[in-house]
Fold:
Amino acid sequence: MSKIAVDLMGSDLGYSELSKAVIQFINEDKNSSFILFGEEDKIQPLFADVDSKRFKIVNTTEVIPMEIKPLDFLRANRSSMYQAIKAVKEGEADAVVSAGSTGGFVVGSTILLRNIDGVTRAGLCTPFPTAIKNRPCVILDVGASNVNTGEDIYGFARMGRIYAEDITEIHNPSVYTLSNGSEEGKGPQEVVDAYELMKTRKLTGFKGNCEAREALDGNHDVIVTSGYVGNIFLKATEGTAGMMNGMIKKAFKRNIFSKIGYLFAKKGIKDMKETLDYRRFGGAILLGINGVAVKAHGNSNTYAF
Amino acid sequence: MSKIAVDLMGSDLGYSELSKAVIQFINEDKNSSFILFGEEDKIQPLFADVDSKRFKIVNTTEVIPMEIKPLDFLRANRSSMYQAIKAVKEGEADAVVSAGSTGGFVVGSTILLRNIDGVTRAGLCTPFPTAIKNRPCVILDVGASNVNTGEDIYGFARMGRIYAEDITEIHNPSVYTLSNGSEEGKGPQEVVDAYELMKTRKLTGFKGNCEAREALDGNHDVIVTSGYVGNIFLKATEGTAGMMNGMIKKAFKRNIFSKIGYLFAKKGIKDMKETLDYRRFGGAILLGINGVAVKAHGNSNTYAF
Structure:
């Protein structure tokens, strides 16, 4: 039975939204139990009907703010996030999940759980939906760091490959560096350096640079980039998909005819939405540390969380 | 009458695609004439039916390759791109347009036409379609540089504001720095520096950081960023929009019912496609140099060019 530490505080939608997710998970998965970190008097009533053997609440009153400096995180050792990560460090839990501050979560996981030997920088990794159904593209780093070296990005490639093979179950995944052109030598120094390292160290599956335009065509299994750029890519993609979904909805709601049109085209449109459903990949896993640490979007709803 | 220098070579689709665009423009706009740079014996036949007062062909045999170093560009002074830019420098043309190498075009325009006094770095600027029809968002730099300083980005903001007011005709445009969070202090050093400069120098319209997710919601008029990141944003957006358009098409082509559905919803879908039509903004203008220099996508078709 796996035990999951959950930081219920610090998300945009509040602890009750996240609690609903935990309860749903408990009901659907019989092989898990939870340690929940947050304000006990508020959380307890939400779990009134849940089997008490499946969860434990650890009362915490402090919440890590969205922006926090590493030293301040260490001082906030009574906070829900600190305590949740510490549960993994001390072997009380097998994994930790939080929808709170990304900066705090990365700092806390790195300091408390430490990088795996040989990893220069941990990276937040998330599978993206692509044009091909059930063929996600694994991208990292999407925001653990702002700036990365070529060596960091090379490390992301090694970790991303393993993730793609073991988690998204893609056999012999192809690996690309994200750049502003497909030719070797394109991009800022860290990308040029990473490319060079992949080549000289003969990283299995490395195919060269990939432009952002082709990234999600379903033919790119692992894409590596520095954290700031990965974050911009992630949000540009989500933003555009969200905007277009809104427009499609509007297009169908135009008048009685378009509404009839929707009824006819419903299946295809639903299928498309499913293929592109970013909520299916609600979290990013922090690869490269000694422990399983998953960072959910700050605005995760129950389904995503 | 305005005179436009056109580099007909170096595009992905070839000189005949671009020539068609020039001929169409000549037919639709009576107040312009062209100086065309390229292989005369190939181009001349395409213009057989065009009024010879409206265009002149300058024979060039050399083509700037996609990747070129600054010194090599200067040596390639017989190339179509070099000659086209030089026509602006020497006052023979009012503007230059090319669909060739971006690197070559930026280097050539910067060296031959030189930056305007006070501009630390020229920036490629392009209006993006947003969720609100006819309310484009002006973004720069989208790829003239890889790396920029805060001072460069501050300069982009000044130029972007003027572009938004005068060209996309947005009164009192709002200006944002692209970052991975909306709070001050988010992002890599150059973004933090740019934010600081905008604040201390009181840039009119500056509203702070903007996340990539909200960039195209129609409420952000000017967004500034370093060139590499802007390029990733541009291509991520285009890639996602293109992918979804393909999926919408597929959804409607599914079967006879979905095809009927399309007939009913056609108007709304077309309206959406028009709102999002990236081809309407086929080029990026290089802001900050002494001259009008427009870089079209390498894969521009007739309509875009």
User: Anything to note?
Assistant: The first strand of chain A starts at residue 2 and ends at 7. Chain A is about 40% helix and 20% strand. Residues 227-253 of chain A form the longest helix (27 residues).
